[in-house]
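Fill in residues.
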């Protein structure tokens, strides 16, 4: 069911404690997971700590600001983040390319995303993905978080066990506070079990380092084009799928153009593509964010506010996140997304023809993690599911057997003569 835009009300009237907490949890999981990947890129490409912190600063401020503006304009929970497949790609692709040329490639990629947002057939194709397939894609994206939470239980059963018990107990008593309770339980249990790593932390503003771009054909072919493809297939396609699964269908064109423009601005501080959120978008668009679906946009706004606040002190916050053990972060992410996993699996198999294999194909291909041609599994999953869906729709209905009319029963009456 599509959620209709909210009536014109003030943000403060629409917001509540659940929206604030959902925004906070979204920011915490993002900074504890994908954001720390920047260290891998910095080490591989021999970038300075200042360049890495500037990268994070630009991502946090511009992604947060873009998400706030889009969420307030559409009254939908539009979460903006950077391209996680892109940062993974840069670990191997960036070394050997001068950083000014990489920044030029980041700018080129942002311009390409803006152009994609003006291409009508593409935006219509995004809107035309069937809802059950979008739900199956979302479930496949989220399930690994649940698997990692269970793996964390295997290595730290006491810590993760306390967090799981807290979650399900609060789900019965105060569902709105369940995820926040998990975070508190994780912090307390980590301290009680002596599993955290306290270290002196200095509060200091992050200073951006602006880079004069250089443009080269080599960087365009080896960075700009792959980054654009990864942003589209790995973030925008599943991101719109997440929103559709939760009942939101923003026009793709304005979102693509806004992300492309923000990416161009962020590139001057050394940051790659800013895109529509996929994994974390479930936290701000699900029922825990707000009981009223028309008011969940406020959770995405709060996520943007927290991202901006943390981005100003990027180095300090990353040191704080390092205090918690990895198992606590994995459990927090898995439990925060558990409700979204359930609703996505339910949506994937509701309202489809009996015996349809389209949704299972999306699940299996996406979970397989295959990357033919260097393109992420999420793209191949939705492509394979659409192929099965169209094949099933064009399959002729089974022919009905013609049954000859039954002969009239015999009677003893004599025919007229």
């Amino acid at each position: 069911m599509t959620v209709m835009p909210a009536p014109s009300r003030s943000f403060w009237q629409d917001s509540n404690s659940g929206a604030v907490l959902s925004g906070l949890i979204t920011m915490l999981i993002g900074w504890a997971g994908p954001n720390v990947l920047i260290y891998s890129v910095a080490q591989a490409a021999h970038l300075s700590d200042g360049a890495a912190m500037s990268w994070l600063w630009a991502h946090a401020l511009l992604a947060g600001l873009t998400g706030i503006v889009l969420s307030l304009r559409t009254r939908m929970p539009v979460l903006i983040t950077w391209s996680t497949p892109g940062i993974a790609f840069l670990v191997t692709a960036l070394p050997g390319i001068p950083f000014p040329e990489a920044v030029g490639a980041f700018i080129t990629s942002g311009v390409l995303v803006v152009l994609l947002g003006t291409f009508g057939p593409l935006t219509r194709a995004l809107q035309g993905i069937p809802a059950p397939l979008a739900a199956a894609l979302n479930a496949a994206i989220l399930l690994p978080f649940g698997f990692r939470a269970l793996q964390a239980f295997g290595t730290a059963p006491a810590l993760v066990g306390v967090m799981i018990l807290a979650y399900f107990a609060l789900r019965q008593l105060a569902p709105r506070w369940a995820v926040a309770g998990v975070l508190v339980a994780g912090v307390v249990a980590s301290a009680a079990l002596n599993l955290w790593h306290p270290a002196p932390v200095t509060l200091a503003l992050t200073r951006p380092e602006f880079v004069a771009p250089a443009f080269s054909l080599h960087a365009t072919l080896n960075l700009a084009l792959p980054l654009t493809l990864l942003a589209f297939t790995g973030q925008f396609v599943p991101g719109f799928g997440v929103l559709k699964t939760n009942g939101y269908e923003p026009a793709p064109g304005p979102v693509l153009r806004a992300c492309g423009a923000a990416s161009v601005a962020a590139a001057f501080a050394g940051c790659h593509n800013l895109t529509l959120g996929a994994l974390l978008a479930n936290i701000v668009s699900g029922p825990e964010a707000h009981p009223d679906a028309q008011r969940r946009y406020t959770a995405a706004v709060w996520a943007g506010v927290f991202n901006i606040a943390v981005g100003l002190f990027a180095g300090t916050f990353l040191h704080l996140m390092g205090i918690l053990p990895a198992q606590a972060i994995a459990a927090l992410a898995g439990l925060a997304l558990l409700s979204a996993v359930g609703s996505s699996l339910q949506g994937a198999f509701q309202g489809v023809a009996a015996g349809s294999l389209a949704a299972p194909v999306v699940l299996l291909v996406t979970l397989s993690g295959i990357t033919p041609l260097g393109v992420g599994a999420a793209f191949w999953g939705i492509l394979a599911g659409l192929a099965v869906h169209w094949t099933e729709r064009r399959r002729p209905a089974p022919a009905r057997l013609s049954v000859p009319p039954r002969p009239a029963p015999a009677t003893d009456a004599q025919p007229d003569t």
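The chain is about 65% helix and 0% strand.
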